[in-house]
Amino acid sequence: MHELSIAVQIIEIVHKHLPADQNLSVKKIRLRVGEFTAIIPESLRLCIDTITRETADAGVELEIIEIPAQVKCRQCFSVSKIEPPYLICASCGSQQVDIISGRELLVENIEAE
Amino acid sequence: MVDEVKLIEIKEDIQADNRLVAENLRQEMSRQKTFLINLMSSPGSGKTSTIISTVEALKGDLSFAVIEADIDSKLDAEKVAARGIKAVQLKTGGFCHLDASMVSKGLQEVDFARFDVVIIENVGNLVCPAEFDTGAIMNAMILSVPEGDDKPLKYPLMFSVCDVLLINKIDYLEFSDFDMLAVKQRVLGLNPRIRIYEISAKTGEGIDVWASWLKQTVDRFVRS
User: If you placed Cys at B135, which of A63, B22, B118, B172 could pair as Cys (CB 3.0 to 4.6 Å)?
Assistant: First the structure.
């Protein structure tokens, strides 16, 4: 639901890392997005397209690497992959779990030419 | 000639900038001894009336200002200001949450250092505000009885980022099948550190207990 502000931050990060003196333009942005982040890939793509329209970044490709949601149970200590948003241990059904992955939201790398 | 594609490694957290602004804000609040509360909930859970009854319960003990966030309305700020409470309205312009730089703007507008406590009334939404650090010293949320006791299961992230849960509209309990014990078990399962208070902003029930805990907490913060 908050893809627009995320898209603005992504483009800012990309420009911060793009060498200014090499006349490069960004062709692909690779992101790592955890399943807990409530980011809808299609919606993020649309926001990136919209804010880059008629700029040098227009047409930039977005590749999203999804990071599975995993929890560690405080009862049975097992690590399991789960379906967000429910936070329940897949092994024993306990709700006493800690998130160990799935909250990531990173710009991994970019391809420029 | 084929253009050479250059791979540039970044590995940067998209929220890093916001977290940095939030951290600076928290340090500034600690220096100025202003306790910043980020109050979150779904629409209609009673954020504005809870703020009003909390401020009235602590009148004479603590001074309050309120930052109201709304997609596009001044209604809440006017309602709070009508009670003589200093309030500013931040229009989020379609955004579903507040981030630290928006809060920082609101704090300047309200001249925060003059107050013991500033309450941010975040946008009514149980999803997005949980993802953004606002720079608050304390995250608080409201769950109201008519919303149902399944909300901690559906929006676990919100319940896991909060320090305090106010269960509001307890005057509706007798008309509802809301299972208070189940809610508390679900919430404490997600977040064993959270403090839970049962209140009714309308009848005033439970407000004194919550307000006196808040007073003690702010006093400890000011002395630290």
Answer: B22
B156-182 in b/e form (b: 16+ CB < 10 A) is bbbbbbbbbbbbbbbeeeeeeebeeee
Nearest-neighbour CA in chain A from B159: distance (Å): 11
pLDDT tens, B17-48? 999 999 999 999 999 999 999 999 999 999 99
Q: Say whether residue B9 is in contact with chain A using an 8 A CB cutoff.
A: yes
Complex-level ipTM = 0.87
CA dihedral A75, A81, A84, A90 (to 10 degrees): -40
Does A87 contact chain B (CB < 8 Å)? yes
Report the pLDDT averaged over residues B60-83. 86
Q: At what angle do helices A3-17 and B16-32 cross, to 10 degrees?
A: 100
Query: Cα A28 vs. chain centroid, distance in angstroms?
Result: 14
Domain ranges of chain B: 21-206
Measure CB to CB from residue A37 to each of B7, B131, B155 and give the nearest one.
Answer: B131
Rounded alpha-carbon distances, angstroms, from residue A105 to A5, A31, A33, B17, B194: 13, 7, 5, 12, 26
Minimal-distance CA residue of chain A relative to B5: A113
Q: How far apart are CA A58 and CA B3, in angstroms?
A: 18
If 0-12 CB within 10 Å is exposed, 13-18 middle and 19+ buried, where does residue B94 land?
Answer: exposed
Q: Which residues of B touch A12 (CB under 8 A)?
A: 17
The CATH architecture annotation of domain B21-206 reads 3-Layer(aba) Sandwich (3.40)
Instruction: Give dist(CA B169, CA B145) in Å, integer.
Output: 6
B118 three-class SS = strand
Residue that is written with structure tokens 């092994």 in the block: A91
Evaluate the omega torsion of the peptide bond into residue A85 and state whether it is cis, within 30 degrees of 0.
Answer: yes
Query: What domains, with CATH codes, occur in chain A?
Result: 3-112 (3.30.2320.80)
Encode pLDDT of A49-78 as tens digits: 999 999 999 999 999 999 999 999 999 999
* Cα–Cα distance, A110 to A56 (Å, whole number): 15
